[in-house]
């Protein structure tokens, strides 16, 4: 049985301020991610329905660490313990996503929301043309601007939330933005 869930509101269509649009769409996708996880049983959250093997909980943890890596580690240059804590043994960048057996949806949601709040503070304190402070493996020559990083985060969210759309429909038939 297919059930439709009403999507959250996007930022207003008349909004032209780039910072407000970027923040608005990041929050829109953050909300969409959490909404798509709501209502799934623990077994559904920990079971993969895809050949690649990732689970909905792993995706939540991954997107938390994506924000940590790009904004705290990369943009600010902070020394972040375990910047690849969403990955397999040893936190290797190339490792598969992982969630430990004792990590719950509530734990991961709390970490995600805390990271989003930290990200909002970082974004508010910087200019969109400020450059990333730390060397990041993706770039060998020029560091990206905060605006570029935020657009990158948006595409990361859009792609992964779209993948979660399919997983959710396969898991229990719920569809919606």
Q: What does the model show?
A:
This is DinB superfamily protein. It holds the Pfam family MST. By secondary structure, the protein is mainly alpha-helical. The chain starts with a strand and ends with a strand. The chain is built from five helices and two strands. The chain has a single domain (about 30-175), classed as dinb family like domain (Four Helix Bundle (Hemerythrin (Met), subunit A), Up-down Bundle). It has helices spanning about 20-35, 40-45, 55-75, 105-125, 145-170; strands spanning about 5, 175.
Quick structural summary:
This is DinB superfamily protein. InterPro entries: DinB/YfiT-like, MST-like. This protein has 177 residues and is mainly α.
Q: Give the strand tally.
A: 2
The biggest sheet amounts to:
2 strands, parallel
Low-confidence stretches: none
CATH hierarchy, class? Mainly Alpha
Class from secondary-structure proportions: mainly alpha
Count of helices? 5
In spatial order, strands of the major sheet run 1-2
Please give the radius of gyration in angstroms. Answer: 17 Å
Mean pLDDT, as a whole number?
Answer: 90
CATH homology-level superfamily: dinb family like domain
Distance between the termini: 17 Å
Shape: globular
Helix content: 40-55%
Pattern of helices and strands:
EHHHHHE
- Fraction in beta strands: under 5%
CATH-scheme architecture: Up-down Bundle
The total tally of domains equals: 1
Question: What's the CATH topology label?
Answer: Four Helix Bundle (Hemerythrin (Met), subunit A)
Protein name: DinB superfamily protein
Pfam families: MST (PF04978)
